[in-house]
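3.2 Worked example (two chains)
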Amino acid sequence: MKSTNFQKWAIIILTIVLAFYLHFSGILKELIRLTGDFGIIGILISGIFFGYAFTAAPATASLISYTNYFNPLVISFIGATGTMIGDLLLFNFFKKGLPKEINTIIKKTKINKLKKSKFKWLLPGIAGFIIASPLPDEVGVSLLSVNKFDTKTFMLLTFILNFIGLLIITTIAWLI
């Protein structure tokens, strides 16, 4: 079943409203704090939240708190698996088709020109940098989905990049 443009916008707007509500009500912060009691499952759940703009900070704090109980390699592996799952949800949403208005914006910006130039290899590089950094993954994921990235390659790339990012964060926390 193909989603209409209205349905896509409704989903985007509802998720933004829900994210604001969960963030400002404190529910999300409490939920992520509670993951500390769940061990490896908590790391996986925190990893899922690690890639999203409104949940990155509490999820990072949760993952750092696990350095008291787990090796940074374990936290990074499980956390990156969770982040890959969260990023895959976004990737599939964007890959199935962005609302027409967003496609119009992309076509009118330098992103579309870059996509068609000899420097098109820069898009995955920019996206990869964003995904590996502490910045929210949404922008990087959307760049890869617009670039018609293969799903399996995307999964491997996002796992590796988030693993490296989490390993750096958790190792620093572990050493301190």
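3.2.1 Second chain
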Amino acid sequence: MDINADIGEGCDDAGLMPYLTRVSIACGGHTGDARSMDTALRLAADYGVAVGAHPSYPDAEGFGRRVIAATPAAIQAWVCQQTEALADVAARLGLHLAHVKPHGALYNVAAQRDEVAAAIAEAVAALDPRLALLGLSGSRLIAAGQTAGLAVMNEVFADRRYRADGQLVSRETAAALITDPLDAAAQAAALAGGRAITALDGSPLHLAADTLCLHGDTPGAIDLARAVAHAVKGG
């Protein structure tokens, strides 16, 4: 099972890296600058981890977790500008991007709104049709990526709770995060094995899973990563 994390966001990226196969790097929307992108790219290269862009609403104050009213054209421009910024730094290091994954509020809105999903997918396809698009499993962003002719990866989460409809429980809800390593490992193992997990309301939920995400800002993130990696690939 592919395991990914979002890096370049001020967390312990080096501690997570041994457990990852893919990273999405903040590239100037919610955080990130040329220096942090260079650092994150070099770290990923040291571990042989695939790299991708993590564009967001341009909202450093809200860390990209607030919805910003925007036209599809504006969203396309933001995705292109941020992804190109990372691609330029990567090129100077002899690296190539493998994917794009929206961050925060942009990710969640794209999961539910066709016009936002299409704007992101079209931006990625215009930049480089070889890039994969990561999105919430079974969401409108996945469908938009397929329509745009992109390779898509259904993303699932080891450290987040789900609603019965497959959407993530809002971070404003107390039960949104899974912080117990055993609970995170159990959810990850179920997702990787194609088994149902338990939604917040207690109902069973089946999700397609191509890549499993961990968050560096979840309390106890390194312990969670260790437990999840052991659960899904034995180390």
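3.3 Remarks
The mean pLDDT is 96.
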